[in-house]
Amino acid sequence: MKDRLVAGGGRLEGEVRVPGDKSVSHRALILGALAEGETVVEGLSSGADVASTRTCLSALGVEISGAAPSVRVRGRGLGGLKAPAGDLDAGNSGTTMRLLAGVAAGHGFSSRFVGDESLTRRPMKRVAEPLRAMGATIGLSESGTPPVTIAGGALNGIEYLTPMASAQVKSAVLLAGLHARGETTVIEPAATRDHTERMLTAFGVPVRLTGLKVTVTGGSRLTASKVLIPGDPSSAAFWVVAATLAPGSELAVRGVGSNPTRTGYLSVLARMGADIHREPMRGEGGEAIEDLIVSSSDLRGAVISADEVPGLIDEVPILALAAALAAGESRFCGLGELRHKESDRLAGIAALLTSFGANARAEGDDLIVTGVKTLTAAKVDSLGDHRLAMTGFIAGVLASGESTVSNASCAEISYPTFYDDFIQRAK
Question: Is 291 in the active site?
């Protein structure tokens, strides 16, 4: 993984479009594969994680033509995937492994999911337990991590209360439920991203929503659809925070997804005093989009409650950087889930901010950040985590002097052109 040198100073101006939403892109490929007919996907993410989903689906017999951002998926219908000839490599993508585990559980063949070193440390019991309850045979390592082996077929619907707020667990169970007898209901302890529910509806599947309960009926047919992928809010957050913190900035971020389960970062920044104008646009495929017009502004500290965290879990690192330059103290509560990302992201963000001269510390599952007036140049390690790499890069831009982000190329997981895009718009 290559290092990145970052010169401090400058402002952002003009406009930018971020890659297609990673979460929606995964689901468009997967539901297109399960649908009858050909699904057209526009705006597909070009990141490595989505490429992993495409590779696994191809190994399961799905024909996908074209290259991101425009692809066509020839669906095989519900239950129509083929047994893979070898291991299914999910790369660094937990979404790929967990969602496709739900799909594979509904097919009468055996499969084995593997991943890179980072993915093999991530917890998979959370998906294995409900799938076992539905009738699938799931094998994991002794520590409950990948590789994941699945012998599926003959599933029964269940009512499942997820022990944690996880859109990936919810989606895996719902996808398995499409292949099961009877109804499958998932009950969440807190609201999470609802991309799966929205896209199932767009593909013609009846979805019943009652508060934090979502229900699907096994055997519901999926009909091919056209899907327009909105810009990824998690990627947009880096631009929004950078333009807010870099003095003299005026930046438009175009075509960003505005799904209410993904805009928590904007609510937090608004509480902190950010100057962000939201202009709604027309979306397709069940997802809304908007333009974000951002001007630089002074921020103040804020408290982010544990109930808010599921709606901004991927934006915590860059929001913590915003807190590092805000007046007063900020507290991010209930971040235990961050310890199970590509890295121990909670410890990683605290260490990264401290390296740049900020006051940040983890207390249990909370992150406490006290704002400083300026950041100082630093050399930091991304730990192979794309969110930390991009946060470190933005911190370097805002710091005095020249900084280095080690292992910076992992940003390709979600945003392959991030560094080049940023340099082009920095003045």
Answer: no
